[in-house]
Structure formats: structure tokens, C-alpha cells
Design brief:
The protein is of the alpha+beta class. The protein contains 12 helices and 18 strands. The protein binds one RNA strand through β1, β2, β3, α2 and β11.
Length: 435
RNA sequence: GCCCCGGUGGUGUAGCGGUUAUCAUACGGGCCUGUCGAGCCCGUGACUCGGGUUCAAAUCCCGACCGGGGCGCCA
């Protein structure tokens, strides 16, 4: 037998009727009726049926019906069109190679009639991923990331990679994972914020980074991970945060369009609708958002950031207007990090929300050295801790801004998934460190 | 950091002081030439751990371990 596979399941068509093909994959199910048996074989694209008769090929028949489910095999045989088969074709096997025998029972059923819990699924993620609805999420994730790259490159952004092992607690706010760096203490980066800003003093003008970030927060919710990925951008010579927002909305629109176009099967498998946002996506000023919430009976003191409940209600209000994506802009300066450009008591900032969940936040940044030092102090932080960062503001720093977009959050909201852990292959959360 | 909730066969569950510990699915065996959630018959298989209360604990109490979710914070 020369090759293990000449065709994937979905490639079978009438032109192969009566022809010899070789297929390979996992044995999803064996239905043995005594003298005839049906083997459902699964590959990356779907499933196909192998039909074998005891009288015709006794040896192959016996081998096939005695396999454990999820064994890996390669079968050479004749493809036959047959309308009794679900996808229209069956393979009559003439040669069988058992490439890997599976143990039984499975720790997690691939097509069992009982649903497994997330914990069991994650403990056996490699099996979980054999399910088409699970695999679809990661096929879409691939398109999401690559379409983001397309879009950003076409718009003059340069891909960069900044350190994930850093010397000091960068932004304040979240807790960082501490680690030993030879004789020094170090931390895992919570975001590329300070580095991508420093790069604005380099003349690269537009940079983006797709990378991992680490947050040592002890939360245990369906929206949080301790290790997650993000698309970050930073751009110089902007007139205000609107320039950044238009990149973000264009990016999200492009991502949605690409997914819609290139992931039709996966979208169908997941039974979701991908609606690319209309540009410009609505801008809701923080003050307006407060009023909208007040009408719904939610009282919030001016200056407070929205909690998850408020975000959810705003999402509900927008959904009634048929809007999935919307910006919340002009937050009070105290609700935003120190590098955010102030504007009166407000800030040149924005959050992008999707269906009631914040998926991205950004702003115009402060590029004036003295103002930046003052804002660091006002936030109770020590300018000396930021000396490497601050230095970049002393020798020619153009006006700039950017955003961070959480990949898992975006994917979760696009696909209406209930748990962010669905969107990452091997999640790290409050309690999970393996596999 | 705070607050709720839960741990029963491989998987998912019922039971909530005295049961032969329920059911499904999976697994093993048998029958079956058109299955596609195949069907039918038979079988194997479980109370997280430690202490306590009680004549009696899966069941009540305490602790540990493991897990789920919410808040805060954020992506």
C-alpha cells in the first residue's frame, strides 16, 4: 500500500464512482449487522462509510468489526455511489492497514449520547477536538488570526514581538506571575502596552503584535483565563482616538467577513450567524451609556466603570436595535490606566463591546513626558519603576494610540459560546495547569 | 481577595439516615445483509479522602483535597 490517504471524506464525488480510493482516519463507529458491517470513518473534513460483507472479504470483515472505536486505520477500496448512505458514497474495502489501535473504553466519547462536562473534556482535550463542533472553533480561530494579519499588513502595520519576561510590574492593576530570572526577580507580561508605545518612538509608526499574556488574577469565571492571547496595535501620528477606532472597526469587520466567507461549514456546524458590523459602528459616550442604564433602572455613580451586569444590560439594549458591536467612548479619566490621554475630566478612550461583553479597549495615549509622569504619580505609581518606558518620551515621541483585542473573548462572542475556555486549546485558569 | 454551589461505574445521572445504590450511555459476550442516536438478549462496572454523630451514613456534622459559578478586576 503506497499512501495512507488519497482522498478526504468530503472529496468523494460521482467522478470517483467505481474507482479505487484510499481513505484514512479514526473509526468513529462500528455497526455490525452480522453478515454486513458499516464502519464510520472520520477525518478532518467529516465522515464517510466503509461497508464490508462477511462473505466477500471475511478477513477484512473480521478485522474491522473487532477494532476498538477511535482506532486509526487506512483503507484502500472501491468508492461506490449509494443513496442509502448518508453522504451518498461508501467504500468497499480491499486492503486494510491498522495504523494505531485505540484502547477501550474511551475516557471521553466522541459520538456518545451523553454529554461530558467541560472538565472531563479538557482533561481529554485531544479527544474532545475530534468532535466537529469543537474542531470548528479552532478552524475559525485560525481564519480570525490570519485575516487580522492580512488586514493589518495591508494597512501598513508591522508585526513585532515584545518580551513576555519583564522586569517590573508594568501597568499596575492586575497581578502578575512572578518568576525567577537567574539572580533577579521577573514577571510574565500582562500586555505589550509599554513596549508597543516605546516602539512609537522608533519610527515604525504602526505596529501590531499577536501574542500570549498572563494575569495572575484568582478569578474563576466563564470569561477569564490566566493565559490568553490578544491582538495589540499601536499607531503614531494620529489626530485623536477616532483614528484608532476606525482601524479597530475595520479590523473586526474584515475578520467577520473572512470568517463568514471561508468558514461556511464550521459556521453551519456551530449553528451561528456571523454578522459583520456596519461601519461606522455606533459610538456611545460614557455619559449616554449612564443615561441608557438609568432608563433601565440601573443607578451608577458618575466615574464608576461598568460592571459585567451593566455591560450585559447595555448589550441587551443594543441588541434590541439590531447592533452586535458598539463603542463606549469618553470614559472618565479615573476609570482608565495612567497612559490614557485625558480630555477635561474624561479621556480619549474607548471600549469595543460585542453582545454585552468588552472585547477590546484602547485610547489615544499621552505622548507628553511631563504629563505622563504626573499621571503615573496621580495613580499612586512610582515614575522610577517606569524609567525605561519614560525615556522613550524624552527624545521625540509622536502623538499615538492603540488598542488590545482579546482573541478568545472575540471568538467567544462571535460564536455565542458560553465559556471562554472553549476558545483556547489548553486553557490555563484558576485551577487548571494541565494538560 | 470576597461569596455561593457541587464531588455516586469510563461518561452523564437518580437516590439525600435502613435500597440487592436508579437509569442512560460506554465496555464485554451473543443474534441479525442496509445500518446511519441501528435493534434485541445477557453480563462487568461506582458512593473523593479523613474524622465525628447514630443501632445504622452515599445520605447528617467538621476538616482536607478536587471541581463549578458569581462579584471585584479585566481582554
Amino acid at each position: 500500500m503506497g499512501v495512507y490517504r488519497t482522498h478526504y471524506s468530503k472529496e468523494l464525488s460521482d467522478k470517483y464512482d467505481g474507482k479505487e480510493v484510499t481513505v484514512a482516519g479514526w473509526v468513529e463507529d462500528i455497526r455490525n449487522l452480522g453478515s454486513i458491517a458499516f464502519i464510520i470513518l472520520r477525518d478532518r473534513q467529516g465522515t464517510l462509510q466503509i461497508t464490508t460483507f462477511k462473505k466477500q472479504h471475511r478477513e477484512i470483515f473480521e478485522k474491522l468489526i473487532n477494532l476498538n472505536r477511535e482506532s486509526v486505520i487506512s483503507v484502500k477500496g472501491v468508492c461506490k455511489a449509494n443513496e442509502k448512505v448518508r453522504n451518498g458514497y461508501e467504500i468497499i474495502p480491499e486492503e486494510l492497514q491498522i495504523l494505531s489501535e485505540s484502547d477501550a473504553p474511551l475516557p471521553l466519547g466522541v459520538v456518545d449520547k451523553v454529554k461530558a462536562e467541560m472538565d472531563t473534556r479538557l482533561d481529554n482535550r485531544f479527544i474532545d477536538l475530534r468532535k466537529s463542533e469543537v474542531r470548528s472553533i479552532f478552524m475559525i480561530r485560525d481564519v480570525l488570526i490570519n485575516s487580522a494579519r492580512d488586514y493589518l499588513r495591508k494597512n501598513g502595520f508591522v508585526e513585532v514581538h515584545t518580551p513576555k519576561i519583564i522586569a517590573s510590574a508594568s501597568e499596575g492593576g492586575t497581578n502578575l506571575f512572578r518568576l525567577k530570572y537567574f539572580e533577579k526577580d521577573a514577571f510574565l507580561a500582562q500586555s505589550p502596552q509599554l513596549y508597543k508605545q516605546m516602539l512609537m518612538a522608533s519610527g515604525l509608526d504602526r505596529v501590531y503584535e499577536i501574542a500570549w499574556y498572563f494575569r495572575a488574577e484568582e478569578h474563576n469565571t466563564r470569561r477569564h483565563l490566566n493565559e490568553s492571547t490578544a491582538i495589540d496595535i499601536e499607531m503614531a501620528f494620529i489626530k485623536d482616538e477616532e483614528d484608532v477606532m476606525s482601524v479597530l472597526e475595520g479590523l473586526v469587520k474584515h475578520i467577520c467577513e473572512e470568517i463568514k466567507e471561508r468558514c461556511k461549514d464550521e459556521i453551519e456546524t456551530l449553528n451561528v450567524e456571523i454578522k459583520p458590523p456596519e461601519i461606522p459602528v455606533p459610538r456611545i459616550r460614557y455619559d449616554e451609556a449612564l443615561q441608557m442604564l438609568e432608563k433601565e433602572g440601573v443607578e451608577l455613580e458618575w466615574g464608576e466603570d461598568f460592571g459585567s451586569e451593566e455591560e450585559r444590560i447595555l448589550g441587551e439594549i443594543m441588541r434590541r436595535k439590531g447592533v452586535d458591536f458598539y463603542f463606549i467612548t469618553k470614559y472618565p479619566i479615573q476609570a482608565k490606566p495612567f497612559y490614557t490621554m485625558p480630555e477635561g475630566g474624561l479621556s480619549k478612550s474607548f471600549d469595543l463591546c460585542c453582545k454585552g461583553v468588552e472585547i477590546s479597549s484602547g485610547s489615544q495615549r499621552i505622548h507628553d513626558y511631563n504629563l505622563l509622569v504626573r499621571r503615573i504619580e496621580e495613580n499612586g505609581l512610582k515614575p522610577d519603576d517606569f524609567r525605561d518606558y519614560l525615556k522613550a518620551f524624552k527624545y521625540g515621541m509622536p502623538p499615538h494610540g492603540g488598542f488590545g483585542l482579546g482573541i478568545e473573548r472575540l471568538l467567544m462572542q462571535l460564536l455565542n459560546l458560553k465559556n471562554v475556555r472553549e476558545c483556547i486549546l489548553f486553557p490555563r485558569d484558576r485551577t487548571r495547569l494541565r494538560p
